[in-house]
Amino acid sequence: MIRRGSSRISLLVLVTSLALLAAACSDEGPGTASEPPPADTSDGPPALDEQRIESGRELYGLQCEVCHGADLQGDPDWKTPNTDGSFRPPPQDASGHTWHHPDQLLVEIIREGSGSTLSAMPLYGDILTQDEILSIIEFFKSTWGPEERLFQWERTQVAQES
Ligand code: HEC
After folding, report:
1. What CATH number is attached to the domain comprising 103?
2. In this predicted structure, what is the pLDDT of residue 21?
3. pTM of structure
4. I need a surface site. Which of 58, 84, 141, 147 has the fewest CB within 10 A?
5. How many domains does the chain have?
6. Average pLDDT, integer, range 99-124
7. Would you say the C-alpha torsion 156, 117, 73, 49 has a positive or negative sign?
8. How many C-beta atoms surround the C-beta of residue 162 within 10 A?
9. Are the CB atoms for 27 and 34 separated by under 8 Å?
């Protein structure tokens, strides 16, 4: 009796799994080739690396703080150009617009300057390695909120594709 009962259950399991398999393979079933793949909601800015943030913070203190401020606050009057038309150092935290730019452009500005001939900012291409520059940018990112991070990360993705 026990044997018959259990083999009936396994037959039921087999039939059910075959039915499920058939449903999964049918054209109307979910997950068929005609449907777009589900959106990958796990995507988003990658987690920041604590060690890189720390080395970025140190390099920032040595190279950038003198102009951009100990708290990344920039010049208090950064939105007003100097009388000669040059800019004052902008903030690097979320109150500035560094987070409007993709990684690639930030690296370029830091290596080669903003393009302004009047710029007071030194060119760091021969002073810092690419890795050191990316660490400083990692440090900046650690001070931004989730919205600024998501925005800047998306810009970086778009810049990568173009
Ligand atoms: C001598 C002052 C000075 C130093 C030192 C300096 N900067 Fe700047 N930085 C400026 C000024 C002024 C600007 C505004 C744009 C311009 O004039 O080029 C600027 C602009 C920037 C921008 C563009 C920001 C934006 O919102 O578009 C970035 C990024 C930046 N600096 C990063 C750095 C980093 C990183 C360092 C250190 C490795 C550094 N700066 C050192 C003066 C400085």
Report:
1. 1.10.760.10
2. 44
3. 0.79
4. 84
5. 1
6. 96
7. positive
8. 6
9. yes
